[in-house]
Each structure stands twice: as structure tokens, then as C-alpha cells.
Hints:
mainly alpha
Amino acid sequence: MILKHALKTAVAAGILAALFQNSDLTHVQYPVMGLIATMLTSVGDTVKAGWGRLGGSAVAGVFATLILSVFGSNPIAGGIVLLLASLFCELLGWKALVSQVGVFSALIVGEPALGKDPGLYTIQRIWDNGIGVFVATAVTLFFWPERPRQILQKHLSQILEHTDQCFQQIIQGGEIARTGLEQRIAAILQLAKASETLLERSLYGFLGRQLVQDNWSDLIARERRLRRHLLAMTRILREEHKNPLLVPFTEELEQLAHRVSTNISAIKILIQRQRSNRISKSEIPPLEQHLSAMMNRLDQMRHTGEIRNYPLHDVIHFYDFLSSLTRLIQELDQLAIQLQTQNHRTSPIRFSWKLSLHSIPIAQIKHYLKVAIALGLTLAIANFFHLEYGYYVALSLVVAMQPTLGKGIDAGKQRVLGTGIGALVAIALVNTLGSHPFTVALGVALTMLGCDYFGMTSAGYKGGCFLVAIALMVHSSEPNSYIWGRFFETLLGILIAMLFSILLPPQTATAKINPGLHQTFNQLARLYEEIMETYLTEQDVAIAIDPLIEHIRQGINLQTALQSESKVELIDGFRSAILQRRWNFMISYERTLFSSILSLQHVITQAIPGGLKQLFLPELEDVKQQNMLAIKAIAGSLDLPPNSHLFTALLIPLQAIEQKLENLRSSGVTTTYEMSEVISFFGILSALREISENLEQMSKHWPEKQSS
């Protein structure tokens, strides 16, 4: 993918250089810079980046014109322009414009010639960059575009294929079934994660509205649930021997497996028709009806007493298997209905142009104030020492001044290394092949590929590509002086940014992770308690569970991002590796517990009411209390392992329920309940056991505390 992207970016840059290198444009490098800054792999991303570059220039240009007309061109004015323009964009929710606002503010004051007539410069900048943005959008649209909708549909088809293969292997049983099963289930998770990332990037503009209308967030959630149900079904394969209850139902399971394959093939055809925009009128028969024969036969085995010929743990595992199988079948049926409904939908997409104001967090205001102060002081330093390319110091400072120290270090590293690679490429080309459109294209391609080889993102290669383009198009007569001057002044700006980040003081990711973990584990305990209270009392609880679920999901995602940032902060010295290990552990189990609690919520929502639950209310209340206390203990013991006595007895209430069931089964009492209620109850027990086992395992594998 990066090779294609580098190639088409290079070709487009070469074309623009051929058209404008010898033109009368005031800033001949801006068309190529506009192209490099905005050309991404998908049309949605490119449009968003282009809107940010042009819109940010326009907003900053208006504020610069007003401020400079009052205060004149000086370092303080640059900081004021950045602060006011950034807060204006935040107030209107124009996130894409903010980064360009800072760059424009640094340029308009850092280069005195530009500050003399900021209005004219703004118009020239928008026009010149607009040429590059237009070309970038057109090239992205017609040459090797990343088409999010088609990729999402492809991922869904692949997940369905893996689901079919996994189901067939589980039905077969034995050692052969285990071969490749874990890899297929892991592949489903990887595809779902890739789809989530792609959807998040693409929710912009017309395409984003289409994806929202198609409800891809829900489709991706279904993908994850399919994987979870398959994973639950594999528990029947983890026994030392093949579950004897599978044998009497071999024929029914094989028939169901055939039906599953048929329906999945039909759903995949439906997805293919969506790709080609052909309306499908086919109806996919539901799968759930094919479970009825199996359920009826199992119900008969219960009433005749034949079920008592099998060991209780095998009976429980088989009920657990059927419960997961039922949820898998229901998910496939609902997926088919959703896709058919989308194919028949013809309602138009409505657009809203109404502006709305957004509140600005105090932390964000402080960050922009800090950047504005740093920019003003940096411009003053550059002016005092008469740096030839002093505005590059200011530009790199704006890039590296991030809300947290981790982001700042990462952005600064990317900028310095990317600019360094661009400098080496530019030196090599300008002193061998000379300056012409071909070398501009070649330099852009080599810089992008070099940055990708060393693991740098677009934030890294943009700086290098900018340097190559400007060196070859504008400074070809004195390239060496410009190239190294820009590199070292970029480095100086990054160092100043790091100094300001530390002194003002920084918001570190490291300092935020533990409080976030504490809050999220407490929220998990609260969510678990409310779900169990709903089940045991059969009454609606006061809390709105959906917002709590969303808060937990956001918290886990934020902690994952903060942990990634913390890896480059290095502020904890020798303890950083120990902290990373513990955070890996905590976040991993945080996700696992969240998934398990959501599974419990699902089975409780689908539960069949009846009297069976009433026989076990004391034990179920005990399960609820012990698990809730264990999760709260984890929330309060992030640095040290929690008290082990809270975890050693987590499974005892569930074992008591199983023993009580055995006693009731031998007396024939359990045959008085409906099959659907029995399966539902075992599904809830299975979900509770999963939560208890995860908590017990967490306490056993808690990372050992080591001295620093």
C-alpha cells in the first residue's frame, strides 16, 4: 500500500513541479506542499486534510489581518493569533483546522515579508495550496484509492467465511477440529479491529454519512459478537474427552451446519450485490427454526429421565454449548435481516449546514495558551539571533507542542527524523541529478519510502517531503545552505518545544493512566452490580446502563492510547518497563472483564422467565456480591496485588449451584421446567463462571512488584 501511495504522490508532485516551477507564482512550492500535506489513501481522509489546510489558513488569515493591523508584526502578535484562531476553531468544532492555524500563525509573523500584507498572503496561500489539494483529491479518487465501504464489506465477507469454517470444525469435534481454529478466531478479531480503525478514519463528508446510514458501527459490533459466540462454543472442545451428548445429536448438528453454510453463502452474495449497488430482493430463511428439533429431543430426554445417564458436568457443558450456538444463530439471522433492510432502503441523505457551538475543556485552553506563549518567545529568540530560517524553528515548535508529553516527544521525533531523511535525499539529488520535475517526484518517493522503512507515519514524511520540494524548486541555486539550515533550525524548534513542555509543566500520559484504570474498574463493578440486580429482582434499575457502557468503552480506549504515549515519555526511568508490564496486564483484563459483563447482559436480556432461578437466589446473590467486591478490590489495588482471600472463593457459589442442580436432577425435579428456561439459566451460569474465572486468573497472574 505504501509503495502505491508513494508512487502516485510522486507522480502528482512531479506534474505540479513541471507546471509551476518556473511560473510567476509568489510561492511556487505551495501547490506541491498542499498536495503532500493532504494526499492520503482514501478520498474521505484527503478531503478532510484539504479542508483543514485551506480552512485553517482562512481562519488564521482573518485573525492575523485583524491582530497585525492593531499590534503590528511582532512575536507577541504571533502568539495572540494562534491562541484566538485555535480557540475559535475549537468553539465551532472544526478540529481539522487547528493544526494549520498554528502553522499559519508561525509563518505570518516569523517571516516579516509575509506579515506586511497578511490579507494578500492569505489569499495567495489558499489559492496556491488549493491547486495541490484539488490535484490530491482527484488523484486519490482515480488512482488506487482506499475505498472504505468496499473494504468494510470485504472484511465482513471474510469474517463470515471464517465463522462458517469455525462452526464446521467445532461440530466435527476432536483433535482435527482444534487445528487452525484458534487462528481463524484470531483472524476474525483482527478483521474487526481493522474495520473499526477504517471506519473511524472515514467518518467524514459524504462518504461518512453513507457509512453512518449503513450503520457500520452496529455491523462491526455484530462481527465481534460472532467471534465471542464462537469462542464460547469452543469450550466444549477443551474437555479431556468428547462430550457424549454430541453423539445423539450428530445428525441434527450436521444438518444445522449445512444450513449455516447455505445462509452464510447467501449473506455473502447479498454483500457482493451491495458492492455493485444492485438491489437484492432475495429472502434468507431464518436459521433459528432449525434448532427446534434438537431442543424438542433434548426436552424429551429430560422428561424421560434419559438425561440423568450423563455426567452433570457434561450436561452443563452441552447446555452451555447450545446456549452459545443459539446466540450465534440469532446473530446470523439478525445480520441477514439488517443487510436485506439496507438493500431495500431508498431514503435520501439529508444535510445540515447549521453551525453549533462546542464547549472547550479548560485543559485545552491551557494547552493553547502554553503554545501561544512558547511561540511568542521562540519568535523573539529567532529575531534576536537573526536566524536565516527562523520561522522553521517556530513551525517545528508548533508541531511538537502537544497536549501530553508523550505525543510531543513522538511528534518531535517524527519531524526531526523525517526532515533528516528528506535532507539526505535532497542533498543527494540536487548534487547529482540537479533540479527539475523528475527529481522532485523522485525525491518525494524516496523520502516517503525511507520514512516508512524506519517506521514513521505521515507526520514524519511530510516534513521530509516539504524540504525536498522546496530545496529543489526554490533553493536550487544554494541547496546545501538551505537544506542543512532548515534541518538544524527544525531540530532547534523541537528542543525548545520539549523544554517548554517540561517547564510549563507537562500533562503526562503516565500520570493519567492509573486514575483512569481506577475509575474504569469501579465503573465495571457498578455495571456488573446493576445488571445482576436487574436479573435477581426482575425490576428496572435507576441507572441508565447504556451511557455507563459507553463511558467504560471510552475509558478503555483512552487508557490504551495513553499507554502508547507513555512509552516515549521515559519520565519514570528504570521503572518504565515494570509500569508498562502492569498496564498491559490491567488493560488486557479490563477489556476481558468488560466483554464478559456485556455477555452476561446479553444472556440476561434474552433470559426466559420462570421458577428455576428462585431455587438458587441465595447462591446467585453470593455470586453477585463476591464478584463485585473483587472488581472493586482491583480498582483500589492498582500498584499492589489485591487481598487474595477475595478471589480464592469466587467459584464456590457456582459450585454450590452445580451441586444443588445435581441433587435436584437425581430426584427428577429439574424435569418440571421448560427446555428454553433451562438453557437460558445455564447460559447465565456460564457467563457468571467466565467472569469469576477471569477474576481468579487475574489475581493469580498479577505482575510481581519489583523495586526500582
